[in-house]
Amino acid sequence: MFPSRSIPGNVGSRALVTQFLVLTQGVFAEPKDVLLVAATNLPMNVDEGVLRRFKKHIYIGLPDAATKKELFIHYYGKQKYEEILEDCPLNFFENVLKE
Length: 99
Description:
By secondary structure, the protein is mainly alpha-helical.
């Protein structure tokens, strides 16, 4: 949503970044009850000025293979997991869900 202004691209995105920076100027200068949370899967493409507006940066890495398996079972169920294991080649989840 806030791509780097140094990357050539959409003029609308550049205007959006500039507008965000103008609107948030000084918001974090004094301690207030303001919480602004943002998330991205492409942190390297976010504008540096936007990143500077956030005092804390928390990186949450990708889950490991065991956690991916647990998530799959949580969302699709144990039965679906076992069905896929029957239909897929041996070590399917270990290869697909590797770190």
